[in-house]
């Protein structure tokens, strides 16, 4: 009898197994799926800052189009029972527009933007030429008087590690920089490389944890996050 071999996905090649072995493998996979934690990260809907390019304050609301777009988004039922959001007004309004009852979670707060809070990219560049470029080339230093991406990664990463014990589906509504920090934590990516990832309003990032974090999908608001 041929010995079952593993392929790169980590699953058995059932074509090389006996029926008994295949059933055992399928049972193990099914059991592991049930024990996995799935985290759906939803980026907040659009605000004036996200459309024009700027660093929002904690009290910035969704713009009218962003609120309408959020109201048109629905989630699979399995993600609706355990929903968390950052403490910003935009995160709260996104959850409300989507018809979700969300718990406030400080770990999902947006990156603190220090003295750049409430200012547009153009305004910052005019007042501090080259400052934006220097920050993008080395995000470890953070914005003047603000939080570094490493600090954000540590706080959201600690929260992510806590929810792994739930073995269930969890939804989190947060901000683009925090989605990037979560990806850095889950996939051991450099923080600088995450700045190359576009995180659009209402986009969905799906991660799962079963002994280790894995990226399941990256998608726009209208794309499926799983049933």
Which helices and strands occur, and which strands form pairs?
Layout: H1 19-35, E1 37-43, H2 48-52, H3 64-71, E2 83-85, H4 89-97, E3 103-104, H5 121-127, H6 131-137, H7 149-163, E4 169-174, H8 176-187, H9 191-194, E5 204-209, E6 213-219
Parallel strand pairs: 1-4, 2-3, 2-4
Antiparallel strand pairs: 1-5, 5-6
Show unreliable segments.
Answer: 1-33
Main sheet attributes: strand count, strand direction, barrel closure = 6 strands, mixed
Report helical residue fraction.
Answer: 25-40%
Give the overall average pLDDT. 85
Question: Topology as H/E string?
Answer: HEHHEHEHHHEHHEE
Summarize this, please?
Helices cover 37% and strands 14% of the residues. The protein is built from nine helices and six strands. It has a six-stranded mixed beta sheet with strand order 3-2-4-1-5-6, with helices on both faces.
Defining key terms:
227 residues; alpha/beta; six-stranded mixed sheet; 9 helices; 6 strands; globular; disordered N terminus
Explain how this protein is built:
- The chain is α/β, with parallel strands linked by helices.
- Helix content is 37%, strand content 14%.
- It is built from nine helices and six strands; from the N terminus they run H-E-H-H-E-H-E-H-H-H-E-H-H-E-E.
- It has helices at 19-35, 48-52, 64-71, 89-97, 121-127, 131-137, 149-163, 176-187, 191-194, and strands at residues 37-43, 83-85, 103-104, 169-174, 204-209, 213-219.
- It has a six-stranded mixed β-sheet with strand order 3-2-4-1-5-6, sandwiched between helices.
- Helix 4 links the parallel strand 2 and strand 3.
- Helix 3 (64-71) packs across helix 4 and helix 7 (149-163) crosses helix 8 (176-187).
- It is globular.
């Amino acid at each position: 009898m041929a010995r079952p071999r593993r392929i790169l996905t980590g699953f058995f090649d059932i074509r090389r197994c006996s029926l008994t072995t295949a059933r055992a493998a399928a049972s193990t996979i099914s059991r592991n799926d049930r024990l996995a934690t799935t985290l759906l990260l939803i980026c907040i809907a659009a605000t004036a800052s996200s459309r024009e390019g700027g660093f929002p304050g904690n009290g910035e609301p969704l713009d009218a189009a962003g609120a309408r777009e959020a109201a048109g988004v629905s989630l699979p039922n399995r993600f609706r029972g355990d929903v968390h959001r950052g403490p910003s007004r935009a995160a709260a309004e996104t959850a409300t527009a989507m018809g979700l009852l969300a718990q406030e979670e400080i770990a999902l707060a947006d990156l603190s933007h220090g003295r750049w809070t409430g200012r547009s990219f153009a305004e910052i560049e005019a007042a501090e030429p080259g400052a934006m470029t220097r920050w993008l080339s080395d995000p470890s230093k953070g914005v003047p008087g603000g939080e570094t991406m490493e600090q954000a990664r540590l706080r959201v990463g600690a929260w992510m590690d806590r929810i792994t014990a739930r073995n269930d589906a969890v939804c989190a509504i947060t901000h683009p920089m925090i989605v990037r920090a979560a990806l850095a934590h889950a996939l051991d990516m450099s923080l600088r490389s995450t700045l190359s990832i576009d995180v659009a309003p209402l986009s969905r990032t799906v991660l799962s944890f079963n002994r280790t974090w894995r990226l399941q999908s990256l998608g726009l608001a209208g794309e499926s996050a799983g049933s």
